[in-house]
Amino acid sequence: MEEKVYQTYVQVLKEELVPAMGCTEPIALAYCASKCRDVLEDEVISVEIKVSGNIVKNVKSVIVPNTAGLKGIEASVAAGIVAGKTNQILEVIANVNDEQKQQMREFLQKIPMKVIPIESECALDIAIHLYGKNHQAIVRIAGYHTNIVYMQRDDEVLYQSGVVASSDSSLTDRSLLNVKDIYEFANVVKIEDVKDVLQRQIDYNLAIAKEGLENNWGANIGSVILKTYGDDIKFKAKAYAAAGSDARMSGCEMPVIINSGSGNQGMTASLPVIVYAQEEQATQEQLYRALVVSNLCTIHQKTGIGRLSAYCGAVSAGIGAGCGIAYLKGGDYETICHTLVNGLAIVSGIVCDGAKPSCAGKIAASVDAGILGYYMYKNGYEFKGGDGIVSKGVESTIRNIGRLSREGMKETDKEIIKIMCD
């Protein structure tokens, strides 16, 4: 394939498949707060936090790891100020001791903190203003979880991005992504170019899935699936993906490898493929190539949707996993196309109402749709262009999903946030 496309795909995987500990929206808040504390260089006496509605939605109900069970925007910011190590980025609060956990609670009790919801062109928008005894500082993140676009100390602007942060503008161009090239790339990629990032995904995400199955986390969707339906591979694939979310949404302090800014998406895109590979005794190379398909198909769908929206990201990842499984089982380009379209036709109505334990149930449903989409095509059945939001051609259907999310679900997103805040 073209060298430009090849190198772009390698870079996209390296940019997207990165480690994070905890739900990425609370961690983005902690990262922003930690950076702002570094800029301030003073004792914090009050805090002002401006956040877009999707940040409110995705932080409200999830436990922040390494805080002894704290939830919410204020807790996330307090964790970053008290214990954040800014250079660890999305693992900013990965190393916290018991004394710091107590200091977080004291900070929340003593320091005035004001949260201000804002209207923003960015679904992901965070601005933290710290007031110290002698100085003040502002840091803003927008567009994606680590994208610092503005820093100020007192009256001096230290940094300001010249680009409106309504998209992942500083990342590698995603417009080159398409299913045909993804399939070709998976066939020809040199394993040494992707091995490290994919092996880390296997190790991290499999570890937290096992934790979710073996212990009491969240609503225990993963273990309920296995207890209820047995360990048939189709159920086991759903259970492992759900179990990772069970643990992560309820404060498990193990890191995961994310996809498109989300740990749930990272686990959903990878764990079903890993489980299938183990069951069918696939080679490590076969697993790597299947993970290339699942991850890039997920990223391709999410590019048109955006990082945060009213459209559940688990759907994109579950369908991506279905594509990876199809590839692992010998499926060709046509098989992957039909798997993707069939799966999207089934579950594209699932809404995102924030990060919380029920994400695990949505993950299970999405993985099920991805697997069903594959077996439909294997048995000679498919959803065709003109069936609802399905258009002729896989790329047309993917574009429809992006349009549905960006345009059609704007008001849905606002209403979800209103309901959650009420």
TrEMBL record:
It comes from the Bacteria. This is UPF0597 protein EDD60_101134. It comes from Longibaculum muris. PANTHER family: UPF0597 PROTEIN YHAM. Belongs to the UPF0597 family. GO terms for biological process: L-cysteine catabolic process to pyruvate. GO terms for molecular function: L-cysteine desulfhydrase activity. Residues 90-417 form the Serine dehydratase-like alpha subunit domain.
